[in-house]
TrEMBL record:
Family that this chain belongs to: Belongs to the AIG1 family.
UniProt keyword annotations, A-Z: Membrane, Transmembrane, Transmembrane helix
Topology of the protein relative to the lipid bilayer: Multi-pass membrane protein
Transmembrane segments: 12-37, 58-81, 93-115, 127-148, 168-192
Any Pfam family hit: Far-17a_AIG1
Main location: membrane
High-level lineage: Eukaryota, Metazoa, Chordata, Craniata, Vertebrata
Subcellular location(s) per record: Endomembrane system
Protein's UniProt keywords contain Disulfide bond: no
Protein name in UniProt: AIG1 protein
Cellular compartments per GO CC: endomembrane system; membrane
Catalytic activity field: 9-(9Z-octadecenoyloxy)-octadecanoate + H2O = 9-hydroxy-octadecanoate + (9Z)-octadecenoate + H(+); 12-(9Z-octadecenoyloxy)-octadecanoate + H2O = 12-hydroxyoctadecanoate + (9Z)-octadecenoate + H(+); 13-octadecanoyloxy-octadecanoate + H2O = 13-hydroxy-octadecanoate + octadecanoate + H(+); 9-octadecanoyloxy-octadecanoate + H2O = 9-hydroxy-octadecanoate + octadecanoate + H(+)
Amino acid sequence: AHQTYGGSWKFLTFIALVIQAVFFGICVLTDLSSLLTKGNDSQEQERQLKKLISLRDWMMAVLAFPVGVFVVTMFWSIYIYDRELVYPKLLDNFIPAWLNHGMHTTVLPFVLIEMRTTHHQYPSRSCGLAAVCTFAVGYILWVCWIHHVTGVWVYPLLEHLGPGVKVIFFAALTIIINVFYLVGEVLNNYIWDTQK
């Protein structure tokens, strides 16, 4: 039972794919809603659409972009360094290369296309960074909890780090995901030229 504890939810890749699926689902819903309410004077529908747009923009800023870019860059950086730490060669027998790219590569072009085609209103920087930190710390605590319960680290890489190094490693990852948040904000402002 320890092997299955946390299921797929213990992997950031899986969580990131769920985030992307929910986010792009909301994008489709937003587009459909705005098409259906065009030329309609209903204040209530207008309000609901604004809420949906706010949710879409918040998800893009805080989750879809930083978590997506984080998963792609971290996975491939570690994979290039030593694939056994994140994606042992043994997995090639069960998971075709296209599926690996589906999980660890395609997120990036899709999220960049979304950023280029749709203007997103970013939250205030302090709120955005606080939300990203909350997500990062929440995930780190979840990984530590799984280790506490099962005695096994979700990522083999963590087996090789001492306690002090783990703390520095987790802090560094939290800083990196915050940097990706800022990159997203800067890129969004650059594309849409929305500097205040």
